[in-house]
Amino acid sequence: MNGHDHGGPAGYGQPGASTGSTYVPPPAPSPFPQPTPQPSAKPRTSLAVALEQSRYRLMVTAAVVTTVFTAISVKLAMATLLAGGGEPRPHVALEIGETTTNRADITDRNGNLLATSLVTQSLYADPKLVSRPEEAAQKLVSALPDLDYKDVLAKLSGDRRFVWLKRNLTPKQQAAVHRLGIPGVAFEQEERRFYPAGPLTAHIVGFTGIDNNGLAGMEQGFNKRLKEEPGTPLQLSIDLRLQHVLKKELTATVQEFSAIGAAGIVFDVRNGEVLAMVSLPDFDPQDPTGLNPETLFNRATLGVYEMGSTFKIFNSALAFDSGKIRVSDMFDAAHPVKIGRFTINDYHSLHRALTVAEVFQHSSNLGSVRMIQLIGVAAQKAFMTKMGFTRPTGLELPENGWPLVPNPWREINSYTISFGHGISVSPMHTVAAAASVINGGFFHKPTLLKRKAGDEIPTEQVVSRQTSDMMRRMFRFVVTEGTGKTAAVKGYLVGGKTGTADKQKGKHYEKNSRMSSFLGAFPMNDPRYIVYVLVDEPKGIARTGGFATGGTVGAPTVGRIIRQVGPLLNVPMLDENAPEILNSTYLNAAGSTNWQQSLPPVTAPPPSKGSTVASFPTQTKPR
């Protein structure tokens, strides 16, 4: 080198640099690409970290929500678009015979619900799982105030693994207990019987116990059937409309006459169906426990009573059917009948001989005794047995009373039975037997089940048609001219028989303690229905002059009932004075059935002035 420098910055040996400096040449450029130099990284703050985590979480949540809504959308599309619009499957919705309960419903003849079962929840506990019995018992009593604290505490502190605390809770009660969250306390699904008609049909339907077993009425009588055929309702012959009318009028009568009870029956004489039946006092079948036994007692079927003068129906039917007595025959009703130390008199004596029609019309005890004296004891006993008075009626209720009959059946018994004393039967006995007396002579066993169309009706001929025809006339005669006038209802041709019987208490009869009754039937030209009312111990009132007999208590009640149920039963109103009606119902005190003979004689009217008919006086020869 010649010492000349050809380049470089000042200070690096370039010209103008200070003498003596050393020149260092720059490095040669690299043939490989060099990375761009990065600035040095700064440290991450906590805020940045939190933001990044939140961003990741939001992304995950959004993904999950999207997945869930996608699945729901797919399900909805399948349910609505691919499954026929979400309609229930036919084999589920239309399956026959399924039931959610284990006991069949009970309905009236028109399908109205009288008894049904509903699913309920019952409360139980496993004491071994209850850690603090005192606290648990306190909480349960606060939620269910009707529970007894000591009783609940004893159950929760016991050694058993299962104890009932309360059966058949309401939904509100269940929710209250559920909110307590007590360990070891749980619910068990059960059934509870409900009675929509309440006390209205209590003595007919009956009730069930806590375990849903029938304890009274049709619930007990058909307990097996109701359990074995839970899907088939048990249809009764009862008409709820008639039942309401009957109870309303009986209740009014009991209140008006301050009676201790009553019974009533509406009966179809053509087939034996009981259309309504009431016994007062009644009870609530929803809660029959702890009630007075008097309210549970069914006076219509279980109670047996001396029926008094309504039994003259059967004494008269026996007389006609024997062929020994006619309706126009006369019997001494002026002189008392003495037998041993007993004397039989009439309540209101007419002090003269009476025809059979008058004996029935005025309800003469003496005339009835004279008639049975002619017929005899053996014939009376056989007839009363044939009419069902020596055995239970066979009604489907378990509350079915046995008659009280004399044994041995002596002459004195036959005398008193002729006017309704000395034999005790139920109102249902009386109604069923009376129906056979007026329906052509056919006895139909009474039933509380609705008969199906076309079913054969069990029938027994107990009196002749001729006897039945005369008894219809006798029934009508009592209402038109006798003791039952207050039962008359215009257009319905009511007939019937009053009954008043002193009640026996101990060994004696009490005059101011009686059973007053009336057995009415309509229409008497072609009887279809019987309405019977029995009032227990009515008290005389001012309106009735202090009397409380069958004619003043029972007859008007029956009349009010017939006036209301007649239209419901579609019974047409008739002209009571039409010749065809009189031909089939007329009877007078003499025993004549010819209504035309009773009409006043028709006199010729005087000739009018200006008559063109010549009248010539006849000349008589001098005597």
UniProtKB/TrEMBL annotation:
Residues 24-40 have a biased composition (Pro residues). Residues 1-44, 597-623 are annotated as: Disordered. It is found in: Membrane. Keywords: Carboxypeptidase, Hydrolase, Membrane, Protease. Its main location: membrane. Gene3D superfamilies: 1.10.150.770, 3.30.450.330, DD-peptidase/beta-lactamase superfamily, Penicillin-binding protein 2a (Domain 2). GO terms for molecular function: carboxypeptidase activity; penicillin binding. The keyword Glycoprotein does not apply. It holds the Pfam family Transpeptidase. Residues 265-551 form the Penicillin-binding protein transpeptidase domain. It comes from the Bacteria. This is Penicillin-binding protein 2. It comes from Azospirillum lipoferum.
